[in-house]
């Protein structure tokens, strides 16, 4: 569904991503993991159009997306749910969700879509007229994901869904993501703590200093692989 | 390596804003003497009076430049300060019959005092709030004078009958006397400003300008220096105002209006902010432009406004910046082969030319951004600081950190798998 | 007692006008992070447009209101394109300060252009409605004042609906609150910007036309409104819509009371004192948020 080939990008003169190649198959849950500050968020930002591409190709469902505007990319169904939620804090839950359906087609269908989001997140429906700033951490995360679902998202890119949440909530979020992946959209996750995604991830990419250094199925990423292969390699 | 270039660049950048390293007292005196011959050879009184006007404007823009250019605070009350100096001088000659020579110093002091009063409340404020405050101050003063029906300040019609400095001379000679006086004063102020900017005092203030967005974090020293700079700026402004009032034998509240304020803004920006020569260049350029457009009075303001918008859009460093860049390019050609230094200079030219534009050089992370990269990098910067190469230490630490969390998330799995 | 009621009524009307006048500033600040110094000029131009249509061309005053509002909206868009858009996204300038100066100069240019077209003299314009309404005792209200209040409330109500329900309105709020997220939802920032400026123009124009019968149509008709608008905005907290409404009425009432009991000459110094006090004590206003200081 999403094919990223030899992507290089960064902030102005500083190149962060170097020769990154990623592939996300339809209906799968793919995780990009690695330490913070090594380019995972940058990757998503390039994919969603917030940052320009220096080199490389981004192909989404056959369409070439590099250099397109953020709005166009969203219109194609590639939706980025940013780190830290970035909610419209003074708007209500419902208004936030509606904003997710800003694009014209989605807007027309917004009432149906919001019903589906409320099915997934009943707590959001309870709080629909509350301002987003009054929500708890877990609820904000739900709102962020729900908002991303409001457009006709085919591929959801979620940046650090576990960020700042207590373990119980992390489980809940991941359970929801699993449900989303089964019914609504393909999911590409950025997750610093791979263990969080252990149960649901199909495929994992390991990113270190802006490069993909290893990738494989979740099974291959057992703890011993990480510990021996990479600890060993980096030792020198 | 990058550190060295940036230090050299920073130093060169500082050098850019301080146009000469030594105060050129002698060349200036020579220049003054040369220019002093103008009114002796030129018969046209109108041109001379125009020159006097330009010199007066130069005094005003230079005074303003002290706060904007050096401190980075756009105090829009400057015209009100100038006017207060003018009104003070004028009122003393009219109401008390004082000689203009005695009234003028009072005007100077009034300007200084008014400036400090105006600026005091805004010391701790962010640039734009400080500007709004000074703008409000100026407007309130102006509107109060307009609304004054008691006849004390002359109301909307202003003061008339202010005594001149050289009333005992014929009008031609009085004109020329004003020319010489303002010429000398203008040059003196220029030297003073140059001195100031090159002193530790001045450099401290310039650093303030570069970080004026963090003005709330100003140390006490900086605040005192800022007040002092404002005081000096006010004194010069008062001087300019007093001279203006005595030269034109009057002053009106429309002097403080948005029109003249806009004109001064244009002069300062077009000339080049924060430099010694900029305000003078601007004053002369804009006045000449006004003269050329003299017959089309109202188009004048539209054209000048358009000029400002163009300058802001394309050459924020103003004419002086353009001159500086051409000068540097020239020097660059002459210094080919200096390698690192030249690189530093080029960086400095690029960096120096630009930040001298309105306000500090720090880009506004809060401003709306057209390009995705700027918005993303500025707004969400906290999430992913662009570090070129993170050490493997980070990677290892991450690996190791992974284990306990894994255990916490999944109580029943792999408990025994501690790091080796 | 009756003096007090008269003053209160005045205050309410002032408040309504200030709310409309300042709302443009608030929207532009919230969305574009710009202190739009041309806001007063929008009203001034609106007044002239209304004058042309009514006094010059004989249309009824209500048409004048519409035409004035639309003309001002157009001026708002123009202002955006010549003085704000060229500055957006640039790294070599301080956007906030530069846009402030830029819009100030544009305001001056509009004044100059108006003088060019219409001459510098004041022009009189008929109010929407003539006559006064007798409330009780010696308390009267000019019907024009009632009309002003009614129009203002309708506008504020309409604006509120627009901003909270419509796609465009929500996108303005979204861009104001969380620029990056808005982009990620496909909101075209460029369009939101000029739409906001058009809206600011519209509101400013309405305020200008409503005020014109009271204060004459003149090239400097925008001076006092921008000063008062700034005062309200500072007290409210830059960018806060709710704050703007509260602050507008508070200041309207204060001004009416000061004018009644101390004389209208005092209202300006009091205004200034208000600005000073707020800047020192609470620079982010009643409803602004400290974290928005953006150091």
**Strand line-up across the major sheet of chain C:** 1-2
Q: Work out the largest interface and the residue count of each chain.
A: B-C, 68 and 62 residues
Q: What string gives the helices and strands of chain A in order? A: EEEHEEHEHHHHHEHEHEEH
Tell me the major beta sheet of chain A. 6 strands, mixed
Mean pLDDT across residues of chain A: 84
Helical element count of chain A?
A: 10
Strand content of chain A: 25-35%
Q: Over all CA atoms, what is the radius of gyration of chain C? A: 19 Å
Strand order of the largest sheet of chain A: 6-7-8-3-9-10
Quick structural overview:
The complex is a heterotrimer of chains A (236), B (420) and C (295). With 236 residues, chain A is α/β, with parallel strands linked by helices.
What does this structure look like?
The complex is a heterotrimer of chains A (236), B (420) and C (295). With 236 residues, chain A is of the alpha/beta class. Chain A is built from ten helices and ten strands. The longest helix of chain A is centred in the C-terminal third of the chain and has 17 residues, at 167-183. Chain A is globular and about 45 Å long. The N and C termini of chain A lie far apart (37 Å). Chain B is mainly α. Chain B has one domain: ABC transporter involved in vitamin B12 uptake, BtuC (Orthogonal Bundle), CATH 1.10.3470. In chain B, 69% of the residues lie in helices and 1% in strands. Chain B is globular, with a radius of gyration of 27 Å. Chain C has eleven helices and two strands; from the N terminus they run ααααββααααααα. Chain C has a two-stranded antiparallel ribbon with strand order 1-2. Chain C starts with a helix and ends in a 14-residue tail after the last helix. Chains in contact: A-B, A-C, B-C. Chains B and C meet through α7, α11, α13 and α16 of B and α4, α7, α8, α9 and α11 of C.
């Amino acid at each position: 569904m999403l094919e990223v080939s030899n992507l290089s990008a960064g902030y102005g003169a500083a190149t962060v991503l170097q020769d990154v190649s990623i592939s996300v198959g339809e209906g799968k849950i793919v995780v990009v993991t690695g330490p913070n500050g090594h380019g995972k968020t940058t990757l998503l930002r390039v994919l969603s159009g917030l940052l320009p591409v220096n080199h490389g190709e981004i192909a989404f469902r056959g369409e070439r997306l590099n250099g397109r505007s953020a709005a166009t990319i969203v219109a194609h169904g590639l939706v980025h749910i940013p780190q830290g939620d970035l909610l419209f804090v003074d708007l209500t839950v419902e208004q936030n969700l509606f904003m997710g359906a800003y694009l014209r087609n989605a807007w027309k269908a917004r009432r149906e879509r919001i019903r589906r989001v409320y099915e997934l997140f009943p707590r959001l429906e309870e709080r629909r007229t509350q301002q987003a700033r009054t929500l708890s951490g877990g609820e904000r995360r739900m709102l962020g994901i729900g908002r991303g679902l409001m457009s006709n998202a085919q591929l959801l890119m979620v940046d650090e869904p576990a960020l700042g949440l207590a373990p119980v909530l992390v489980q809940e979020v991941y359970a929801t993501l699993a449900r989303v992946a089964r019914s609504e959209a393909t999911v590409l996750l950025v997750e610093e703590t791979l263990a969080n995604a252990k149960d649901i991830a199909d495929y994992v990419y390991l990113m270190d200093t802006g490069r993909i250094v290893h990738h494989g199925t979740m099974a291959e990423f057992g703890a011993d692989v990480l510990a021996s292969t990479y600890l060993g390699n980096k030792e020198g | 390596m990058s550190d060295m270039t940036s230090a050299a660049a920073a130093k060169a950048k500082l050098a850019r804003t301080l146009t000469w390293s030594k105060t050129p007292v002698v060349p200036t005196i020579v220049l003054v003497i040369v220019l002093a011959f103008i009114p002796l050879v030129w018969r046209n009184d109108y041109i001379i009076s125009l020159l006097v006007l330009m010199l007066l404007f130069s005094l005003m823009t230079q005074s303003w430049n002290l706060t904007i250019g050096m401190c980075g605070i756009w105090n829009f009350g400057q015209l009100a300060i100038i006017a207060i100096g003018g009104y003070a001088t004028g009122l003393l000659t009219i109401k008390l019959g004082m000689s203009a020579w005695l009234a003028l110093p009072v005007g100077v002091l009034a300007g200084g005092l008014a400036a400090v009063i105006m600026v005091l409340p805004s010391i701790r404020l962010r640039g734009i709030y400080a500007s709004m405050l000074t703008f409000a101050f100026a407007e309130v003063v102006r509107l109060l004078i307009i609304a004054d029906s008691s006849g004390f300040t002359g109301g909307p019609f202003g003061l008339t009958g202010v005594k001149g400095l050289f009333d005992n001379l014929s009008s031609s000679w009085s004109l020329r006397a004003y020319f010489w006086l303002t010429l000398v004063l203008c040059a003196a102020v220029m030297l003073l400003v140059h001195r100031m900017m090159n002193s530790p005092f001045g450099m401290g203030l310039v650093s303030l300008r570069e970080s004026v967005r963090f003005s709330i974090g100003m140390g006490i020293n900086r605040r005192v220096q800022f007040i002092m700079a404002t005081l000096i700026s006010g004194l010069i402004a008062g001087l300019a105002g007093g001279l203006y009032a005595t030269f034109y034998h009057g002053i009106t509240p429309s002097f403080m209006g948005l029109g003249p304020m806009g004109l001064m803004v244009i002069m300062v920006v077009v000339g080049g902010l924060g430099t010694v020569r900029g305000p003078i260049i601007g004053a002369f350029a804009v006045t000449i432009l006004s003269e050329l457009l003299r017959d089309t009075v109202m188009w004048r303001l539209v054209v000048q406004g358009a000029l400002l918008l163009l300058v802001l859009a394309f050459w924020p460093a103003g004419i002086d910046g353009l001159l500086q860049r051409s000068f540097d390019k020239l020097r660059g050609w002459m210094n080919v082969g200096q390698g690192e230094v030249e690189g530093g200079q080029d960086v400095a030219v690029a960096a120096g030319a630009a930040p001298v534009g309105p306000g500090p050089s720090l880009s506004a992370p809060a401003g709306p951004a057209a390009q995705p990269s700027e918005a993303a990098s500025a707004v969400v910067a906290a999430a992913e600081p662009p570090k070129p190469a993170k050490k493997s230490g980070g990677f290892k630490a991450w690996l190791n950190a992974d284990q306990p969390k894994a255990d916490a998330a999944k109580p029943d799995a792999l408990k025994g798998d501690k790091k080796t | 007692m009756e003096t007090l009621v008269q003053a209160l009524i005045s205050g309410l009307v002032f408040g309504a006008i200030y709310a409309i006048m300042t709302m443009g500033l608030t929207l532009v600040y919230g969305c574009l992070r710009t202190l739009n110094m041309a806001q007063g000029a929008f009203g001034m131009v609106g007044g002239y447009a209304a004058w042309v249509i009514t006094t010059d061309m004989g249309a009824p005053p209500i048409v004048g209101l519409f035409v004035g509002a639309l003309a001002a909206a157009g001026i708002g868009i123009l202002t955006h394109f010549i003085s704000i858009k060229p500055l957006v996204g640039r790294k070599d300038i301080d956007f906030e300060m530069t846009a402030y100066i830029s819009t100030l100069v544009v305001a001056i240019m509009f004044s100059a252009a108006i003088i060019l077209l219409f001459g510098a003299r004041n022009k009189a314009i008929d109010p929407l409605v003539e006559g006064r309404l007798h409330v009780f005792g010696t308390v009267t209200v000019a019907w024009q004042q009632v009309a002003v209040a009614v129009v203002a409330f309708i506008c504020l109500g309409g604006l509120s609906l627009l901003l909270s329900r419509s796609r465009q309105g929500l996108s303005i709020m979204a861009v104001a609150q969380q620029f990056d997220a808005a982009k990620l939802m496909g909101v075209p920032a460029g369009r939101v910007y000029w739409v906001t400026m058009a809206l600011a123009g519209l509101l400013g124009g309405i305020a200008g036309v409503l005020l014109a019968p009271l204060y004459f149509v003149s090239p400097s008709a925008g001076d006092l409104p921008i000063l008062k608008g700034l005062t309200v905005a500072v007290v409210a907290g830059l960018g806060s819509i709710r704050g703007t409404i509260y602050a507008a009425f508070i200041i309207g009432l204060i001004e009416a009371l000061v004018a009644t009991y101390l004389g209208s000459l005092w209202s300006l110094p009091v205004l200034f004192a208000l600005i000073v006090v707020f800047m020192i004590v609470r620079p982010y206003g009643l409803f602004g948020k400290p974290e928005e200081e953006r150091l």
